[in-house]
Every structure is written in C-alpha cells, then in structure tokens.
Design a protein that fits this description.
The chain is of the alpha/beta class. Helices cover 64% and strands 6% of the residues.
Length: 501
C-alpha cells in the first residue's frame, strides 16, 4: 500500500473562481459588516480591548483566558490582528490546548506570526510544528527568521524537516508551493478492500483530496472517485474502477495556470507530477480558493495604485511610502497637462476660451472609457481568456467599442451644447455655437479613442515586459490618459478655431 503526502488547509498568506467574486465582496461592505462573522469579529475586538486595558494584570489574564476558552481559535486568530503586536502572544499563551494554538497560528496574519515567533522558544515551536501537516508548516516558516528556522529543522523529525525544506524551495506562487505532499496513492492491482483498510488506518489524511492510482514504476495512471470505493465490492481491483487523469501540472506551473485549469474544468483536486510523470503532490480545492483570493487581492490593490498589506497599527509613514510611487506618476502627468495648457495660451481668445470650459468633460469621459477597457482586458487575462489565437480579435473589438462609444457620445454632446445655446439665447456669446459644438464633439471622439488606446495597449505592454498588467488599469491609464486626451482635444480645438477665425 502506498501513501505519499498530507492534507492541506493551506496558504494563510492571504490570499479566482471568478475575478469579480471578491470585488463583489468589497462592494457589499455594509451587508458584510452585518454578517455573522462580522458580528463575531466586532464582539471579540471589543472584549479583547477591554481585557487588555484592565489595570490589574491578574484580572486581565483571567479575562483573556476566559475569552480564549469561549471562542473559536480561528475567530481569535482574526481578532488578534486588531491588537497591538506586543500583546498578541499573551492571547496565544492563554489558549486552552496545543491543537487550538496550532489553529490560531495557522489562521492568523503574518504580523501576528512574526510577533509569536519572536516570543516562543524552540521547544514550544517544535511541539507546534510536530502537530502540523507539512504544507501548513511551509507557509508558516516563511514568516520565521532564518536562524530560528534552521534551529527548528534540527529539532523536529528529520523526515518532516526534509519535506518542509523541499516545499520551501518552490516559488510562493507556483504549484509546488500550493500542493500538499500527503495524499493517498495505491498500486493498480490493489483491491478496494485493501485500500479502504489503509485509509481507515490513516485518518489524519483527507481522502477527499483524491485517491490516485500508480503503476509499478510509480507513474500516475488515474484516480478513483470516492463513490466508486463505496458502491463496488471489496474484492474489485482498483484498476477496474479508476478513471483517467485528464489534467495535471508540474511543480513549476504558475499559480495563474493552476487557477485557470481548476476554474475551467471544475477540478476538485489537481495532481502535481515531475518530468517522469511520477506523482509528487496534490493541489486541493480549498488551496485553489485561497490562491484565487490572494491573486484577486493583489490585482485589486495594483489597479488602485498600491500593493499594500497593512493593519490598523502600521505607522502612517509606511502607508505613505507604499502608496507614494504611483502618486508620483500622477503628479508628473499633471505637470505635463499644465505644460500642454500653457503652450496653447498664446491662442487664447475666440473658440479656445470656450474650449477650456469642457476640459473636465473630455478628460472625465476618456478616462472612464480607458479604465473600462483596461479592466475588461485585465479580467480576461486573469481568467486565462486571452490567447495567441484570439488576441487580435479581442484588441480589435475593444478599439472599435471605444471608437463607437466616442462617436455616439461625441455627436450627442455636440448636439446638446448647440441646443442649449439656442435655448439660452446665445450663452456662448458671439462665438458661432456650431463651432464650439464641433470642437467638443470631435474632441470627445478623439479623447475617447485615446483613452481606449491606452486602456487596451498598456496592459499588453506591461505583460510583455513581465510586469503585472493590473498596474496599468489604474495609475497608468488615469495619469497618462488626461495628458493624451487633453493634447488631442486642444489640437482639435486649435484646428477648428482656425477654420472659423
């Protein structure tokens, strides 16, 4: 009987079944605040703050121990992030047993783990890691100082330590890090009864991650659904009830490739093989969900012009330094806009005077269209929908969509301005209303197409140079779209003005 690997409740690194699933969660903050978990978090936060502000240390520790016994260690793990870092180890120490301590440290955030690792001794860490699955332990040691990690590896079981070291070598965003190295794998000639007995003898390994079938060379041949194990006689060989494995990845596969496969084919567990097709790990469904959450969190942050991960206790300077780089891009683009406007100052008068009034309209419309195009394209990339075969078609459709939108809104806006001038009895003064309407109409068409051009090609450019294309969806399009659309608008305004004056 073969057994290789373990159950994984992974990646507390925080964390796309559907890209907009998490966006939807973010847009429903009010409902989320009233959810059950939200109420629990608020209650625990209030209780812990009161307990840690008691003047008498004896009473405080009694209250904290009571809170630790009454609430789930997972809820406490989330609540700990609201506490000052120096008191988080106190909450950990008052948990009733070591299993609860394992759940706490696995589910809490990186800052809390770092605070705990500074306080906990090597023997306590050894006892904790001995009770953890290997794949959980790997995520935790990323937050551990290197010297403490080496001492810990010398203390724990050598076999487990070697497996932790092997998994730690893989990139954090690769299949090798997502996989668990504990799973059930049996030879083809084994019977269902023999496999069932082995599964019962190893209750700590979750068989829902899959029951995989190997040949005598340990090469992956197929898998057996749990249902087939229950409805067939115990004497049935596994080779008769197994099904072929249609999808698998290597340890070097990226997180995005894994998510794309699981999302498209609705795979419950994805096997990981080496170059010889030997099964070395399994990526479970819950690990994929966490990877999707992580990817979405990162994408949303980059689209907003920041990649920050902070808590309420982080200093203002850290937040500033995280957000400042892309704000500098916006500042530079704004100074360019000033340069464009000042360069047309010598043409002041006539139609250009009225053209200035419509600058916010042009930049606002073109910016919105650019963001729409870039967001759509980034989402297509995120879910694996952009391939070499459909790239040209996707780009063409977005460009035509932006141009069509600009034409419709440009003509409509020009007509509205003309009609308003007639109704108001010449609000545009002695200037020909048709000329002003033409400037705004043509300028809006040009600005919208400029925004579309930036929104489409900036994600593709960033992807080609190896930078996350989500970065372009926010700061780049917003900053440079104003410069490009306003330049086009003023050129058009100057050109139309010369026809009438």
């Amino acid at each position: 009987m073969e057994i290789q690997g373990s159950v994984h409740i992974s990646g507390r690194d925080k964390p796309i079944f559907e890209f907009y699933l998490v966006i939807l969660k973010g847009s429903m903050e009010e409902q989320e605040a009233e959810s059950q978990t939200g109420r629990i978090d608020d209650l625990l936060k209030e209780k812990l703050e009161k307990a840690f502000h008691k003047q008498t240390s004896k009473v405080r520790l009694h209250d904290i121990a009571k809170i630790a016994c009454e609430h789930s260690p997972i809820d406490l793990a989330y609540a700990a992030s609201h506490l000052p870092p120096n008191v988080r180890p106190v909450l950990y120490e008052n948990l009733p047993n070591r299993d609860d301590k394992v759940k706490f440290i696995v589910n809490t955030d990186s800052d809390t783990r770092l605070a705990l690792f500074r306080q906990l001794g090597d023997i306590e860490l050894k006892k904790l890691f001995e009770r953890m699955p290997v794949d959980e332990a790997v995520w935790l040691v990323d937050d551990m100082p290197e010297r403490k990690f080496r001492r810990l590896m010398d203390l724990i079981d050598s076999k487990k330590a070697n497996r932790i070291r092997e998994l730690k070598q893989h990139d954090r965003k690769s299949a090798g890090r997502l996989m668990t190295s504990e799973f059930f794998a049996f030879k083809m000639d084994m019977t269902i009864g023999e496999a069932s007995n082995y599964i019962r003898d190893n209750p700590r390994i979750d068989f829902t991650k899959g029951i995989f079938i190997l040949n005598h060379a340990h090469e992956l041949q197929g898998f057996v659904p749990a249902r087939n194990m229950m409805i067939n006689p115990d004497t049935t060989p596994l080779r008769q009830v197994m099904r072929p494995v249609l999808h698998k990845v290597t340890v070097d596969a990226t997180r995005e490739e894994v998510i794309d496969l699981v999302e498209r084919y609705r795979i419950s567990s994805l096997p990981v093989v080496d170059i010889d097709n030997e099964l070395i790990g399994v990526i479970a469904h819950e690990d994929i969900v966490e990877a999707m959450e992580d990817l979405t969190d990162e994408t949303i942050a980059r689209m907003a012009g920041t990649n920050e991960k902070f808590t309420s206790h982080d200093p203002i300077m850290r937040r500033f330094l995280t957000r400042a780089p892309w704000l500098l891009v916006t500042l530079a683009a704004g100074l360019l806009n000033v340069g464009v406007m000042s360069s047309f100052e010598k043409y002041e008068g006539g139609l250009l005077t009225f053209a200035l009034f419509f600058v916010p309209l042009i930049t606002g419309m073109s910016g919105t269209i650019g963001l729409q195009c870039s967001t759509v394209l980034v989402r297509i990339m995120a879910v694996g929908g952009l391939s070499a075969g459909n790239r040209k078609e996707t780009i063409t459709k977005e460009l035509y969509s932006g141009l069509f939108t600009g034409v419709i809104f440009g003509i409509g806006c020009g007509l509205i301005i003309y009609l308003l001038d007639l109704i108001s009895g010449g609000a545009l003064g002695s200037t020909t209303p048709i000329a002003v309407s033409a400037i705004v109409s043509i300028g809006l068409i040009g600005g919208c197409f400029a925004g579309t051009f930036l929104g489409v090609f900036s994600p593709l450019f960033f992807m080609r140079i190896g930078v996350d294309p989500a970065i372009s969806a926010g700061p780049v399009v917003t900053a440079f779209n104003d410069f490009l659309s306003m330049t086009i608008y003023f050129v058009i305004a100057w050109g139309v003005s010369t026809l009438f004056f």
